[in-house]
Amino acid sequence: MSRIPQSTGYLLCIMLLASTGRVMSAQNYKVISEYKLLGSSATGIAVDAAGRRLFIAGNDGVAVLNADTGASLGIIPLKNATDVLLVPVMNGDKRGASTKGYATGDGKVISFSLADMKAQGTDALPTAGVSSLCYDEDAKTVEAVSTGGSIVTIDAGSGKVLNSARVATGAGQIACGTLNQVYVADTAANVVHVLNHQTGRNDGDFPMMTGHRPSGLALDTKGRRLFVACEDGVIEVVDTDSGFTFTQLKGGAGPAQATFAWTPQGKGQWKAAAFVAQRDGTLTGVRMNAYINYTVGGAYKLSPGLRAIAYDEQTHHFFLTATHGDVPVVVVAGY
Amino acid sequence: MLKLISAGSMVAATLFATALAANAQDGTYIKSAAELHGKRVLIVAGEAEADHPNDDRLVAQHLTEQGYIVTMAKDDDAVVTSGEDLIILSSTADPRVLAGKYANSAVPVFTWNTVDYPNMRMTGPERHVDFETLDPVQDYMRSFSVLYGYYTNVTTPIVREIGIPRSEMFGTLYLEPQAFGWGKPAPSADIIVASEGDPTHAAVFTYEKGSTMYNGFVAPARRVGFYLQDATFHFLTAVHGPAEHDPDLAEWWSGLKLFDASIRWALSEPAVPAPYDPAALMNRLAAAIKGKRILFVRRLNTPEGEESDDHIAEHLKKLGAIVKEVDQTEPDTVAQGEDAIILSATNSKYKMSNKYRDAKIPLLCLEGLMADTLKMANRRRYIDYGEHGEPKESEDPPEAYLEIVNSSNVMAAGLKPSYVKYIKEADVLKWATPTPAALTIAVLPNSFHERAIFGYEKGSTMADEFVAPARRTLLPVDNPAFDDLTEQGHALFDAVLLWTISPPATK
Question: Which of B112, B109, B39, B58 lies closest to B80, judged by CA?
Answer without folding.
Answer: B109
